[in-house]
Amino acid sequence: MNVDGALAPAVESILRTARERTPGEDAERISVDARSFSDALADAEENGRVPLIAEVKPTSPTTNGERTDDPVELAETMVENGATALSVLTEPEHFGGSTENLRRIREAVDVPVLRKDFIVREEQLDAVAADLVLLIVRFVDDLEGLLSAAEERGFQVLVEVHDEEELREALDAGATIIGVNNRDLARLEVDLGTFESVAPVVPEDTTLVAESGITTTADVERMCDAGADALLVGSAIMDGDVGENTRRLVNA
Ligand SMILES: O=P(O)(O)OC[C@@H](O)[C@@H](O)c1c[nH]c2ccccc12
């Protein structure tokens, strides 16, 4: 874990909460029958669609206002318009998410669903079923341990990195699906060059996801040209007409 560099106050606050054991935390160990992410990607390729992970994110530390329409309807619209997979925020305080949203959405669609949250302890994994969970290298102390704990429960794991050093950590821990976050967690600023600088050193057999800051069809092309196997898009889809936004990116 890298401790250098300050984190944005919102991120600090989320982490503080994530590290505490909350009363009533589900003690029963979950076992999930995950929908295959790699099959979903192969399907997108076969159908000539951009492999898009569309994110249900009602708000965020960098968003003005909160989207209050039914997250299940938004999710269904994303899938109807060609999203390959979904990402659902479950962090309530700063992203307006909930595990209940995830549960309902996963029931309503048949594509793989990623649980987007700040998981730092094994117990958090048992909160709700998902097909994939996110682990952020910078925040996890024992990455190898948490990665296997997630895989033992049946989850596929998206391991998020921001630079080459974190990429090394992810690979050493056994990650096979890696996301490069274009947003830095200190200033919350986006630079698509982040993906472009890390992607060339990622081994060929890794599934590589470009995350954050992808807005235009030109951005999609740029990330695909740089080697992205999938693209994770939140704000640009959540802002305005979700169906139209998804369609535009899927057909880029
Ligand atoms: O809204 P954007 O810029 O399209 O970004 C989506 C996604 O990458 C972003 O929500 C994200 C990436 N990593 C995270 C970790 C926690 C919470 C959120 C995120």
From TrEMBL:
Catalysed reaction, written as an equation: 1-(2-carboxyphenylamino)-1-deoxy-D-ribulose 5-phosphate + H(+) = (1S,2R)-1-C-(indol-3-yl)glycerol 3-phosphate + CO2 + H2O
GO molecular function: indole-3-glycerol-phosphate synthase activity; phosphoribosylanthranilate isomerase activity
Indole-3-glycerol phosphate synthase domain residues: 17-249
A Pfam family of this chain: IGPS
E.C. code: 4.1.1.48
Keywords, comma-separated and alphabetical: Amino-acid biosynthesis, Aromatic amino acid biosynthesis, Decarboxylase, Lyase, Tryptophan biosynthesis
GO biological process: L-tryptophan biosynthetic process
Family per similarity comment: Belongs to the TrpC family.
Protein name stated in the entry: Indole-3-glycerol phosphate synthase
